[in-house]
Design a protein that fits this description.
It contains 4 helices and 12 strands. The protein has 208 residues and is of the alpha/beta class. The radius of gyration is 16 Å and the shape is globular.
Amino acid sequence: MIKAALIYNGIEGLDQLYKNDDRIQYHWLEVTKDFRPDLSAYDVLIVPNGSDHIALFRMKDIVLDFLNQGKTLLCFDGWFTDWVPGSKWIMDNEMKSIDMSYSIHSDSHGLAEHFNIEDLNYSHGISGWWSCGYIDAAPGAEVFMVDSWKRPLVIIDEKTTNGLIICTASGPAADLSYATTDDAKAYDAMTKLYRAFIQLVEKRLINA
């Protein structure tokens, strides 16, 4: 079973998006004034949308050490402080969302087999709803998903550290099958994408 540390910033409803099952056990790490958690007991660190990136910057050495132990970081938020090793999130809203679409760029792990990217492209007929900005990917990182201008939106980095880094350009991902929604296709795609990430984490643990 995967032991996951989940950064908790007091966001209402987050407990409905990440629930324990037979694959993964979540442990909530509530952000405090002097936030320096011990991550040694966990396999994966999950940073959901809306997290405190000031606090994460203060513990970037902990994150780096965690990853160099061969563990995994899943970041589903735009990190405006420089705490993710190797890659940077760039906030950019100059491009019109109406012109934006998502596509798979490189998929060495076969993640695209698990979800329909066309379902992620639109929510109530509106494109560009899922991501915000883009990622300046680390050298050697796999760019899994891009936007219309070929800017990275999801990266999979197994080169910068000894571990696995998966980041989105602020695109949320969670086991949303536990939540009600008014756009089933879009949220189903997010759920399946998240589960594909978790399957990749499982494979790494098995092969470790």
